[in-house]
Amino acid sequence: MKYIVLIGDGMADRPIGELGGKTPLQAAHTPNMDWLASRGTVGVVHTIPEGFYPGSDVANLSVLGYAPSLYYSGRAPLEAASIGVDLQPNDVAYRCNLVTLKFKRDRSTAIMDDYSAGHIETAEAARLIKTIEDQLGNEEFSFYPGVSYRHLMVWHDGKADIECAAPHDIMGRSVGDYLPVGDGADRLLDLMRRSVDILERHEVNIERVAKGKKPANSIWLWGQGRRPKMPPFKDKYGLSGALISAVDLTKGLGIYAGFKIVNVPGATGWIDTNYSGKAEYGLKALEEVDFLYLHVEAPDEAGHAGRIDYKIKAIEDIDGKIVGPILEGLKNRAWDFKILLMPDHPTPIELRTHSSDPVPFVIYDSRVKGEGTNRGYSEEILRALEAVVIKDGFKLMDLFIAERP
User: Fold this and answer.
1) In angstroms, what CA-CA distances link 26 with 41, 151, 316?
2) Do the strands 2-8 and 110-114 form a parallel or antiparallel pair, or are they unpaired?
3) What is the pTM of this model?
4) In the chain, what is the straight-line distance between the N-terminal and C-terminal CA atoms, in Å?
5) For the chain, what are the domain ranges?
6) Per-residue pLDDT for 105 more than 60?
7) What does the alpha-carbon distance between residue 275 and residue 260 come to, in Å, rounded to a whole number?
8) Distance (Å, whole) CA 14 – CA 255
C-alpha cells in the first residue's frame, strides 16, 4: 500500500465577483481532482487550531498528524532545518525576508510594497544575504541564504517573545504600525534599519532598478522560534516517508518528521515551478518509501499577489501536471494506494493572506470500486451533507492511514 498526500498550498478561496461568484477552484478545469472527488470520501477539516495564526507551518504540521499545541515552536526553526542550520538550545531562529519598502520622500515612513521583492531570483538574493552577513553578522547574529526571498537569521542566546508581523499580511500598509514590539525588539529594529542602507546601494539592487525590477531594499524579521521536538512519522504511523516541496519550512517539517527530502530541479515555489518534475520524482520516491507528501506552493503565492489568473493557472497545472500523472503512474505500477488531496489552508484573493477557514479534502482508496458520482472537487464539499467533518486537523492523518477499504 502506498500513501500520497497532495497539497495545493492556499488553494481554497472564497467566491469572487469577477468569476461570477465562483472560487478559483470552481472556475479552474480540474478533471483529475474531480475524478478523485467523485470516487472518494470527501470531508471538511479545520487545519488551524483556535488561537493559532493561520500559517502554512501550523497547517502542514496538522495535516502531517502532529498537534500544533504540542509540537509547534515557530516557523523559522523549520526553515533552519531545511537549509542545514543546526540550532542550539539557546538559539532563536527568525525568518529573514528580503522585501521592497516604498519610502516617502522625507524617509519618515514606508509602506510594504512587496513581501517578496518581486520574487527575487535565488542567486541574486544569495549575494545580498552574504553582504548582510558580512556587515551585520557577528557573535550575536548570523544570517543564512535560503530560496528566493526567504532567508534565515539566528539570534544566539536571543529573545523569542517578540511580537512580529508577517510581511505578506501588511502589503500596501505603513510598516511603522507593524514593527517588532517587546523585550529585545530594539535589536531587531536596529538590524532592519541598518539593512536598508546596505541594500539600497548594493549593485544587485542597482541593476534590478535599472531593469525595472523591484529592489530588495530591506530585510524583515519575523516567524521566530526555537528548535522543535517531534517524534518521527515512522514511529507514529509505521510508514517510511519522503517529502517534495520548494519551500524551506515544509522541507524542515519533513526533516523533523524523519522523511527523505527529495529535491526537484526547477522547483521554485512560484507559478513557474516544475510541476511535472514533482510528479516524476514523487513516483520514483514511492519505489523506496511507503508515504509521499507532495507540496505545491504556487496557489498560495498567487493568492498573496491577488492574481486570480495566476491562481487558476496554478490549480490547473497541479491537476494536469501532478494529479493526473500521479494517478496514471500509480495505476501503471499496479500498487494499491490511497491519495489525500487538499489545501493546507485558504489564501483568499480578497484578503491576499491566509485565513483560518476549514478546507475541503478528498481521500481516494484504489481498492474501493464504484461508478462514482457527479461531485467535483471544490469548496462546495464544505456544504455537502455526506462530508466527514474533522474539527482537530491533526486527526485527519489517522483517518487517512486507517486500514479499511
Assistant:
1) 19, 34, 11
2) unpaired
3) 0.85
4) 11
5) 2-72+229-401, 82-225
6) yes
7) 19
8) 33
Instruction: For cell 498550498, name the residue.
Output: 9
For the record, the C-alpha cell of 261 comes out as 527530502
Sheet of 241-244: strands edge to edge? 260-261, 241-244, 291-296, 2-8, 337-342, 359-365, 41-45, 388-390
Count other Cβ atoms within 10 Å, centred on residue 102. Answer: 14
- Which residue stretches of 264-380 are H helix? 275-285, 298-305, 308-318, 324-332
Task: Just give the CATH number of 2-72+229-401.
Answer: 3.40.720.10
| 3-state DSSP assignment of residue 259 | coil
Give burial (CB, 10 Å; 0-12/13-18/19+) of 317.
Answer: buried
The model's confidence at residue 254, banded by pLDDT at 50, 70 and 90, is: very high
Query: Which residues pair with residue 225 across a beta bridge?
Result: 93
Question: In this predicted model, what pLDDT tens digit does every residue of 328-371 receive, in sequence order?
Answer: 999 999 999 999 999 999 999 999 999 999 999 999 999 998 77
CB 23 within 8 A of CB 369: no
The CA-based dihedral angle spanning residues 308, 276, 332, 9, taken in that order and rounded to the nearest 10 degrees: -40
What pLDDT does residue 130 have?
98
For the chain, percent helix, then strand, then coil, each to nearest 5? 40, 20, 40
Taking the C-alpha atoms of residue 176 and residue 34, their distance in angstroms, rounded to an integer, is 45
CB atoms within 10 A of CB 185: 16
